[in-house]
Every structure is written in C-alpha cells, then in structure tokens.
UniProtKB/TrEMBL annotation:
Family: Belongs to the sigma-70 factor family. ECF subfamily.
The protein's name: RNA polymerase subunit sigma
Keyword terms: DNA-binding, Sigma factor, Transcription, Transcription regulation
Ranges where the RNA polymerase sigma-70 region domain occurs: 14-81
Length: 199
C-alpha cells in the first residue's frame, strides 16, 4: 500500500538516511560540498515524487536509487581523472594478506579455504545481512571501496571506471579482486562463520 508523503518523510528517518547518503556520495565524489549538493538534490527529487513511492522497497533503498543516478550523472559530467594508481599502505598490506592465503600452485591453503556459505539467497533476503555488508565495505581502504562501488553499485563498466579514475584496466581488476576478497573474508568472519549472526 502506498504511503502518503507526510508519513513517508519522517524527519528523524530522513536524517538517518541523509547521513548514509552523504557518506556514500562523499566517497564517490571526493568533494564534501558537492556531495552535500547531490544528496540535497536526491532528497528533493524524492520529496517531489513521493506519490510515486509505492512502498515495494524500503524508503532508504528508493532514495539511494535516486542518489545513484545523480552521482553517475555528476561523475560523467565532471570527467575528471583522479589517479589512484599509487596504492595506500593499507592496500599494499592487503596484497601480503591475500598472498598468504594461497600455496605456490595458486590453490588455497587448507586453513584458509573459504567456508561454505549455506543458502546465500536466504541470507540476501535478510536486512541484517546488508547492515553487516555495509560495515565490511566501510572497513575496506577508501580507494578500494570507491572502485568496488563504482563497478558493482553504480554499474559503471570497467573501462569507464578506469577512465574516470585514471587507472589501467589491470590495476582496476587488481583493486576489484582485493575488494571482493576483503568483503568475502569479512562476511565469513562476521556473518557466515558457524552460522552465527551478529547481534
């Protein structure tokens, strides 16, 4: 059932959503003032089209979809190149960590073999999973998280990610590999391990 605009935009809920929107926009745009502007535009657009929100998804999901489109437009408009080829100390240490997971023949060390994840489709349906995923994403180095979110959330093709950030395809693929492995390890520890669910 559709919600009316008055109940949809509860000020406290919107402020909580706005903080998450701003954090994500700042990561992608690397300009706090610009991120503020884009978030304001997204919230204004959501308010303007509140009648179109049918409640089929969470309010946060709906507003994030609006923000996503505005960030993509802004990134393409800027056409700026931010070279992140030089890896941060955190990103370099990720290489050493990942190297220790494998034997010389590129197979997993028995102690580090990925654990079974049970029924992932069931986990994906649980809101708590996404909360844990968000925490894991925030523990990635900033540049790694940015590349991952451009590719997987904003749905830029790899060549466009490379163009926007001034990196090579090879470097982009390495960063994406690090991000996926970092997220996998975090989720195994915080979510899937022994079937435990964080409180």
């Amino acid at each position: 059932m559709a919600q009316c605009a008055a109940s949809l935009f509860d000020p406290q809920q919107i402020e909580e959503i706005r903080r998450d929107l701003l954090k994500f926009a700042s990561l992608q745009l690397r300009d706090h003032a610009l991120a503020e502007d884009v978030v304001q535009e997204a919230l204004a657009a959501a308010l303007t089209s509140a009648r179109d929100f049918a409640g089929r998804s969470a309010l946060k999901t709906w507003v994030f979809a609006i923000l996503k489109n505005k960030i993509v437009d802004q990134i393409r408009l800027q056409a700026r190149t931010t070279n992140i080829s030089a890896l941060s100390t955190d990103e370099e240490s990720m290489d050493q960590t990942f190297d220790s997971l494998f034997k010389a023949n590129a197979h997993w060390h028995p102690d580090h073999r990925p654990a079974g994840w049970g029924d992932p489709e069931e986990s994906l349906r649980q809101q708590r999973f996404w909360e844990v995923f968000d925490v894991c994403l925030n523990h990635l180095p900033e540049n790694t998280a940015r590349v991952f979110m451009m590719r997987e959330f904003l749905e830029f093709e790899t060549p466009e990610v490379c163009t926007q950030l001034g990196i090579t395809t090879s470097n982009c693929n390495v960063i994406l590999h690090r991000a996926r492995n970092g997220l996998r390890r975090c989720l195994e520890k915080s979510w899937f391990a022994s079937g435990e669910r964080p409180c």
